[in-house]
Amino acid sequence: MHIGAQNLSDEAYVNVFKNYQKLEKVIDTFMARSRRENNSQWCRSLQGKDFSFCTSKNDVYDVMSGNRYYKVNACSYSRHRTIEFRQHQGSTDFEKISNWVNFCAKLVAWSKKNVLQAEVTSIDEIPFLTTKEKSFFKQRAEILR
Predict the structure, then answer these.
(1) Rounded CA gap, 12 and 35, in Å?
(2) How far is CA 107 from CA 18, 87, 91, 141, 143, in A?
(3) Residues of the chain predicted below pLDDT 50
(4) What is this structure's pTM?
(5) Mapped to the 3 state alphabet, what secondary structure does the chain carry?
């Protein structure tokens, strides 16, 4: 799923990757087991990547070693001017799709002015989701337990 990034500042773009990394373990709880941690060659974990020195889109690309097969793809920017979120499994379920698209869009919007200072450990700690949205992802996590 691609989100347009052509109007994102370098700082906001870097923040998306920093924030996703700090959210990743919680996001894993509401994804299929095949899309968690490093269980899929098509969406590798961001854990262990050092974004602390990144100040530009190119810096993020370098950290990702030019490999698009991460949960968040930095390679899509050079070709499409997007950030690609690869972690969610394919689905035809509207509710799952719309909630994932909304999650990613809100993450990008929130990252324009914010960066998480610590790893998020529960769905309730996700700062950009409403109570209703958190409830949906908690239900998904329970189903996928």
Answers:
(1) 25
(2) 11, 14, 21, 19, 23
(3) none
(4) 0.97
(5) CEEECCCCCHHHHHHHHHHHHHHHHHHHHCCCHHHCCCCCCCCECCCCCCCCCCCCHHHHHHHCCCCCCECEECCHHHHHCEEEECCCCCCCCHHHHHHHHHHHHHHHHHHCCCCCCCCCCCHHHCCCCCHHHHHHHHHHHHHCC
Domain range spanning residue 89?
2-143
Q: Rounded to an integer, what distance in angstroms lies between the CA atom of residue 21 and that of residue 10? A: 17
User: Quick one: pLDDT at residue 112?
Assistant: 98
Task: Give the pLDDT confidence of 24-36 residue by residue, as tens digits.
Answer: 999 999 999 999 9
Structure-token pair, residue 70: 């991460």
Q: Which of 120, 115, 84 is nearest to 16 (CA)?
A: 115
Count up the domains in the chain and report the number.
1
Q: What is the CA radius of gyration of the chain?
A: 14
